[in-house]
Amino acid sequence: MVSSSSRKAKILLIDDDPAMVRLLTKFVERAFGDRTLIESLTDPREARARLNESVVDILITDLEMPGISGLELLRSAKRRNAFTQVLFITGQSSQDALLDALELGATDYLLKPVEHDGFLELIEQALLRHQRWRVALSETWREPVANVKDFL
Amino acid sequence: MSTSASEDSWIYSTFGDDPDLGELVEMFVDEMEQRIASFQNAFEQGDLNTLGTLAHQLKGAAGSYGFNQLTPAAFDLEQSARSRSSAEAIEASLDRLTQLCQRTRAGAPDNA
After folding, report:
1. What is the structure's pLDDT at B111?
2. What number is the ipTM of this complex?
3. Structural contact between residues A42 and A48, judged by C-beta atoms closer than 8 angstroms
């Protein structure tokens, strides 16, 4: 259990505005650098390819982007790993789409402009939730092994 | 840059004096001229979809960077472009936003 819970959480962050990506990446690295590995992208197509080839623990994505929406990234992430935590960052104009996002399994959302403390609180909650899933799945996986050991 | 603005009218980020974030704020301010040029180009091309998208981006980014004064003006331009307001109305929104963008400064009032 120790090894599974001490692994750094993988975060993928996507926003089509490079300035937003720089700022939010800095917020995450400064507050959670000891617990997370963050990759940041501005191209949602590249993000979808990344999600299709590897698992991320927390996906932070803008909802409204040209070409590929945050909802498509949510679907890609959840197909690959059902317990990826998905956080949306969005403007007021996208609130209708937020309802779709929540129905599709989004963990939470934050409205732009992003408020520093609120953003960090959201990440902290997602990390805790992700950690609980990891521990629960780890224990479920190990249970049969423990039972076997009882008979040794 | 506007030549009529005085130092009293500069707009500073609410965290411009944060030692960790100051460099990012400076980059954001440095890129403002490029954003304004993109707005102007989209308007002149009559590309209101792009203009709306650019205004939407700045609406989210400006407040996130602590330049809260820009948010309502960016919202106004976004709405004007997306609702296909008259060219005069869109241009007026663009001018208001441009003037605010040109007043942004890195750092803080006492150390800029």
Report:
1. 56
2. 0.87
3. no
Q: Do residues B1 and B11 make contact, with C-beta atoms less than 8 angstroms apart?
A: no
Enumerate the domain spans of chain A.
2-150
Q: Is residue B72 assigned to a domain? A: yes
DSSP H helices in chain A:
2-6, 18-32, 44-53, 70-80, 95-103, 116-150
Classify domain A2-150 by CATH architecture: 3-Layer(aba) Sandwich (3.40)
Report the pLDDT value the prediction gives residue A7, as an integer from 0 to 100. 84
Is A66 in CB contact (< 8 Å) with chain B? Answer: yes
Looking at the 3D structure of chain B, how many domains does it have? 1
Residue B84 lies in a domain: yes
CATH of the domain at B72: 1.20.120.160
| pLDDT tens-digit series, residues A6-53 | 689 999 999 999 999 999 999 999 999 999 999 999 999 999 999 999
* Closest CA relative to residue B90, chosen from B49, B53, B48, B59: B48
Tell me which DSSP letter residue A40 carries.
E
Interface with A, mutate which of B21, B57, B59 (most A CBs under 10 A): B57
User: Which structural domain range is residue B100 located in?
Assistant: 22-105
Residue B95 belongs to some domain of the structure: yes
Q: Which of B59, B82, B81, B42 is nearest to A20 (CA)?
A: B59
B56 vs A contacts (CB less than 8 Å): 64, 91, 93
